[in-house]
Amino acid sequence: MYQHTRFTNNSFGFFQKFKNFDYILLACILLLGFISLATMYSTDGGKVLFHTKSHFFKLVIFTMMMIVISFINIKFWFVTGYFFYIIVVALLVWTYLFGIKSSGSQRWIDLYFINLQPSELMKIFIILCLAKYFHRMKLENVNSIYTILTSLIIILLPMGLVIVQPDLGTSLLIAISGIAVLWFAGINHKYFIYTMLGFLISLPFIISFLKPYQKLRVLTFLNPDRDPLGAGYQIIQSKIAVGSGGIFGKGFLKGTQSYLEFLPEKHTDFIFTLFSEEFGFVGSALLLIIYAIIIYRIVAIGASSRSYFAKIFCYSFGAAIFVYIAINMSMVLGLLPIVGSPLPIMSYGGSSMLATMIGFGVVMSARVHNQQAIA
Amino acid sequence: MINSSSDSVKKLNSINRRMFITGSLKFFVMIGLVSRLFFLQIKENKKYLTLSDKNRIREWKLAPVRGEFHDYFGKVIAGNFESYQLHIIPEQVEDFRYVIYRIKDLLELSDREFTKILKKKNEIKSWETLIVSDNLTWKKFSKINNHLYDLNGVKPVISISRNYPYNENFTHLIGYVSQANANDVEKTEAIKKNFVPGLKVGKVGLEKSLEEKLIGTNDIERYEVNAYGRRISQLEFQKGEKGKTLKLTVDTKVQQLANELLKDKAGSICVMDIYTGSIIAMHSSPSFDPNLFVFGISQDDWQVIRNDPMKPLVNKTLQGNYSTGSTIKPIVALSALENRIINTNFTVECTGKKEMYGQTYHCWKKKGHGFVSLRNAMKQSCDTYFYEIARRLGVDKLSETAKKFGLGKEVFGDLFSIEKKGLIPNTQWKKNALGKGWLLGETMITGIGQGYIQTTPIQLCLMTAQIANGGYKIYPHIVENENKTQPIDKFTPLYKESKNIEIIQDAMFGSTNEVMGTSYRSRINDPKYQFAGKTGTAQVKKITERDRELDLKTFEIPYEERDHALYIAFGPYKNPRYALSILVEHGGNGSTTAAPMAKKLFKLIIDRHSLRDSTNKKKYLEI
To answer: Cβ–Cβ of B8/A308 closer than 8 Å?
Structure first.
């Protein structure tokens, strides 16, 4: 009953909530949605085809969902943090057992109206779960063995379930989301440094455990020209597309590389390539600025939040989104080996967009309810 | 509250500190990404732009249009015609099986041709053109066109192909074209440069030797293509240049007559202008239809040509090494005169045979010619006389004169790769080649054109021409030389005394136009056509004593053992203009087989002279 009273005491009026909206963030998200729609239209060859339509509907539905989530009290997400985490883990198990197989991996479950990829949802719910876990923890307890082990289990469990799909890229992104929370929760920085060193030392061993195609990707990254028509094809063509864009790009719908199907995966992981080819350096820089503003607003909302939960969520979510963007772009620009990682909102894919939009919704909710204290 | 406020403050401090670190990291990563973009899109833009164009633009070369061959009067003797072809792009056909079977029915393709097409289809990509048939008859082509409603994706195409309107007439001169193979591409730069699948190139003759002039340059189409090589749109069309049209010196009418005269015989006829060296006709028989090769010859046709005992594939004019027989006698006589071994009054008694060095040397006339002078010896082709003067002259001096007049080396230089040199023997040659000393008896039989001596018919023609023009050097040619550059030693005298040439010419006149002359029966009395010549009969095998006793008629001897018939001549005698050489393999006797052909030839050649002359003058007027 104690909680219940707190809950009602802090409920605000509808208009008050509306007023508290972060309109800059909203505008940026809508702008990004619009850009992604235009780019999708270009991947369809300048016609409204399946991808454009599908992307449009998802964008509309998930944006509305984000606004709805904004009105839900941030406390709801605190209360349900573990619950959703367990649900998604259950979905991952379900995927492992009964998921849809496609091109050699089993990542999706059939929900009749949509094929859901639970691993994408985990990217966001692991943050909520860990944020709740650390919310009440005293700072001196954060670095206890028990805490560290528990949080590692929370991270490693979904990671393992995703790796067996197999989907190395997404499992790494989930890990990054989790590690971001651990970082902000105040786990001793020595642990991060030691882990990093340990990782670097064991890198040769890790590589020997990789699957042949993954090894090939690493080798290709180190020297894309070793097999220009095979493994190196994607990265070479992607660099050609971006590089040939120049300052102002080839113009909307005029990207020859993508239009002539030299770019594989152009509507998913490599969508930035197409955008960059058509809009050039100026367009790409603008897109980066939009992302930067979004991340800045998320961090700013976190800073102004009264509750520790909201704060740690916003910071971690902002960091995670940033890392997703950085990894995707580095991969496309030939700075990292190819790992499957979508560009938030821009890439085609419902589950990824759903997860990102839920994240934005929670952030927006933290903004709207920024005076909400959570015990 | 469970949380103490001091702990809460500590936690806030910790998270804010870490947020600050994270923010700075983000900033640097962002800078990194932007500079990478800057590097790719601005600094290296040119490089990637080129790569992108290379990706998207692909060139297609089309077969160049081949230059034509015209005869002296501008008649097309090797031209191009529109061939009717049938193309299919497999991916544009909905039901390939149905369509291909339908075509099989319509074109009445044999099973072998049909499986060949299916095999070809499997070798190409689905958007590449499959050539079902490259030379359809008009009837079949129109049949296909009538059924097009039923044949989705089938394309009737009109394309340019080689055509030889005079069929077998010019085969040995011009040669033929056929699909280029790896060897052609490797050896000839021009073919390599203009190569497209299905390109037809010259295989023999002038088609081969003048390939670089004839081939022309490709039309180039530039297309924008996608990653799979499929054409998206045409960006540019660059018209290629047609190969050079080459004018030849030959006269189709004379060539046709030569072909007709040698019908069903194996042999060669060449006719030459004695002043310019222009080849008027050059034919080797039997010949074959070069059109058969253009679209690939069928196995049956090829077997017929290959197994013909008369060897149609051999160009006898240029490749045939034959004993000269008596046609060498004008050179032997000339050499003897030039070296002052004899004079016109020198006589020899011919008794029909002569014993010398333990051998018997026979004259063709068993009874003998009695006392003969040079003029009579030439006229009646007395062998005994020539044994004697050859013996006195010696083979080295003889070979010197023979070589001066063009025997024993290629007449056209490098123009025909197949041309043979022949052989004019001398003592040095025998020592080098056979390692034995020269025997005097060998000199004697060389004097009547037997033994080691061998020449090609074109060499005999050149020799005759150079005697006919008064003894001046000429360079035979087939392709009209537009810029008229001729070697500087053209028209240098080949004689020591021009009187000697006149003596030989007069003796040859006697041989044809006086009673007892060997070719008297083939003479023309009209001075306009009157010609002078020398017969020759070249033995294929040694004549034994038994043969002499039997004295068989030509038709009684097996074909392979019959003598070759030769004839060389020039005319009109009063004002010579043309020389010719005729060879009929196993034709028996020069005077009965070869000389009558000359009569018909001179009639036509001289009739056409004024026309040829006027064509030449007109050309100057136009300039």
So the answer is: yes
| B7, B15, B32 member nearest A184 (Cβ) | B15
User: In this structure, are B148 and B256 located in the same domain?
Assistant: no
Q: How many CB atoms lie within 10 A of CB A16?
A: 10
Helix (H, G, I), strand (E, B) or coil at B477: strand
Task: Give residue B618's pLDDT.
Answer: 64
User: Domains of chain A: which residue ranges?
Assistant: 2-368
Segment A245-284, tens digit of pLDDT: 999 998 898 887 777 777 777 888 899 999 999 999 999 9
Domain boundary among B216, B247, B278: B247
- Segments forming the whole domain that contains residue B526: 252-294+315-622
Q: Two tokens at A263? A: 């770019």
CA angle A297, A302, A305 (to 5 degrees): 125
Which residue matches tokens 């006392």? B371
Mean pLDDT of B475-494: 79
* Mean predicted lDDT score pLDDT of chain A: 87
Note the pLDDT tens digit of each residue in B25-39: 999 999 999 999 999
Q: Has residue B30 been placed in a domain?
A: no
Residue/partner pairs of A150-157 with CB below 8 Å, 24 or more apart: A151/A178, A151/A181, A151/A182, A151/A185, A151/A187, A154/A85, A154/A126, A154/A129, A154/A130, A154/A178, A155/A126, A155/A130, A155/A179, A155/A182, A157/A89
On whether both B109 and B145 belong to a single domain, the answer is yes
pLDDT (0 to 100) of residue A6? 47
| Number of structural domains found in chain B | 2
Which of B14, B22, B55 is the closest to A240 by Cβ?
B55
Report yes or no: B269 and B283 within 8 Å, Cβ to Cβ: yes
* Contact criterion met (CB < 8 Å) for A240 and B48: yes
Same domain, B159 and B196: yes
Tokens standing for B483? 């810029």
B110 has a pLDDT exceeding 80: yes
The residues of chain A scoring below 50 in pLDDT are 1-10
Q: What percent of chain A has pLDDT over 90?
A: 52
Is B52's CB within 8 Å of A276's CB?
A: no
| Nearest residue, CB atoms, B29 vs list A281, A326, A333 | A326
Establish if B310 belongs to a structural domain. Answer: no
Q: Rounded to a whole number, what is the distance in Å from the CA of A140 to chain B's nearest CA?
A: 9
Q: Is B475 within a domain?
A: yes
Q: What is the pLDDT of residue A309?
A: 92
DSSP labels, B217-235? --EEEEEEE-TT--EEEEE
The share of chain B scoring above pLDDT 90, in percent, equals 41
> Cβ of A309 under 8 Å from any chain B Cβ?
no
A185: chain B residues, CB-CB within 8 Å: 15
Task: Kindly state whether residues B259 and B196 are assigned to the same domain.
Answer: no
Same domain, B228 and B279: no
Q: Select from B315, B332, B301, B478 the least CA-distant residue to B399.
A: B332
Task: Return the number of other C-beta atoms located less than 10 Å from residue A188's C-beta.
Answer: 11
- Three state DSSP letters for B375-442: HHHHHHCCHHHHHHHHHHHCHHHHHHHHHHCCCCCCCCCCCCCCCCCCECCCHHHHHHHHCCCCCHHH
This prediction's pTM: 0.65
